[in-house]
Amino acid sequence: MQTLFNNIKGDRLIWAIVALLAILSFLPVYSAASNLAYKGTGSGTFIFFIKHFVHLILGFTIMYGVHKIPYNYFKGLSIFMIPVVLLLLGITMLQGTTIDGANASRWIQIPFVGMSFQTSTLASVVLMVYVARYLSKIHGKKITFKESILPLWMPVFLVLILILPANFSTTAIIFTMVIMLVFLGGYPIRYLAVIIGSGILVLTVFILIAKAFPDAMPNRVDTWMGRIESFSNPEDTEADYQIEKAKIAIASGEIWGVGPGKSLQKNFLPQSSSDFIFAIIIEEYGLLGGFVVMTLYLWLLFRIVIVAQKSESVFGKLVVLGVGLPIVFQAIINMAVAVELFPVTGQTLPLLSSGGTSIWMTCLAVGIILSVSAKREEIKEKEISEDNPLDVLSEAI
After folding, report:
1. Closest of 217, 209, 188 to residue 102, by C-alpha
2. What is the count of structural domains for the chain?
């Protein structure tokens, strides 16, 4: 164990925050999974506890392995992975999976292991690394909008177009994060205005085509619009039902909560172990528990900014922000949905919700951040060693 800790590099506080979130996830997931266990499969809740444990172990294995890779290697890997991601997204979309006539092709089955994988989450991480690579490449150079269309915006829009029919919320989050990253990377604002306008135009055209030819192109447009309408004008819909149960859970928790495993709304709230786990956390651990969770994510955001600020390279700064900000942004959206500050999106709470793909890709992103911070530590240790006459003397002896 001591050898393992000695091999852990990078920002220690990020390691601590991620580990703490993972540890805190066990009781809420185990408690909330009872609804799935007894109503869905008829099996006990312990199998969901074990599954969540395995997902976290695999996630931390990914994080540990990735953080040992020099972060500059991710530049070349992102170029190689973009075609792979596009292929996976195309296969996922062409599966033709539908729910109530709407496109629900979000997962592909991993051969031989019997597990599913949500390709859009991998696409998000790869795309942010790719965009960071391009921005670092043009940093300090004068570039025209035309020159950036093919190498920068073409892969972005291809990824978004392949995700959009089945998952609007993920598409919107990725687009927002890309816009934020290129803004931070110094991309001209006047060009950004064109991209944002083009994105809105493409979305409008897609909705019109989907409405005009619903049978030829299964989609979730009606689901999106229904959720937005339900948010602005509550009706007796599934989305409204979820929000009402979430609010009841939050109100029941009060300050201190009803106690671990004693949630009542987990038996009525759909997706209580994933999309609405924040409501279950507040019901069982009160507003104090919710405040602790929010504080951990804000603390993670603070450390991400610190790591980015201390990075020696432009790529290091941008890739930390590119893969780190979406984690906190997704967490804020998930919590905002639970308290009805945002329409239902289907986004999980990173590291706290059940679900393998979300955990693995979050750990992949954190591993990249730790790789950048580990490089900074290596440089700092080298500088200290060079400046310390005792070290020089010891080497001479």
Report:
1. 217
2. 1
* Residue 263, helix vs strand vs coil: coil
Which tokens belong to 266?
Answer: 């987990």
Provide block-wise average pLDDT over 10 residues at a time, the chain (397 residues). 71 94 89 67 70 92 94 93 92 65 62 75 95 92 88 94 85 94 92 92 84 63 62 61 84 87 80 84 92 96 95 93 95 90 85 88 95 78 52 38
Q: What is the DSSP string of 309-331?
A: HH-SSHHHHHHHHHHHHHHHHHH
Long-range own/partner contacts, residues 256-265 (CB < 8 A, 24 or more apart):
256/285, 256/286, 256/288, 257/282, 257/283, 257/284, 257/285, 257/286, 257/288, 257/289, 258/283, 258/284, 259/284, 260/27, 260/31, 260/284, 260/285, 261/27, 261/30, 261/31, 263/31, 263/32
End-to-end CA distance of the chain: 33
Give CA–CA dist 170/95, Å, rounded. Answer: 19
Write down the pTM of the prediction. Answer: 0.88
What does each C-alpha distance from 308 to 92, 361, 371 come to in angstroms?
34, 20, 11
Quote the domain boundaries for residue 258.
Answer: 2-396
Chain CA centroid to CA 131, Å: 16
Residue 16: CB partners within 8 Å, gap ≥ 6? none
Q: Quickly list H helices, the chain.
A: 2-7, 12-36, 46-67, 73-94, 119-138, 145-148, 154-163, 168-184, 189-212, 221-232, 238-253, 277-310, 314-338, 356-387, 389-396
Question: What burial class does residue 229 get, using C-beta atoms within 10 Å of its C-beta: 0-12 exposed, 13-18 middle, 19+ buried?
Answer: middle
| Largest Cα span, the chain | 81
| C-alpha to C-alpha distance for 33 and 39, rounded to whole angstroms | 10
Spell 139-174 as b/e; 16+ CB within 10 A means b: eeeebeeeebeeebbebbbbbbebbbbbbbbbbbbb
The residue among 314, 345, 309 whose CA lies nearest residue 330 is 345
Instruction: Give CA–CA dist 30/289, Å, rounded.
Output: 16
Strands 115-118 and 107-110: antiparallel
Please name which of 345, 306, 304 lies closest in space to residue 327, comparing C-alpha atoms: 304
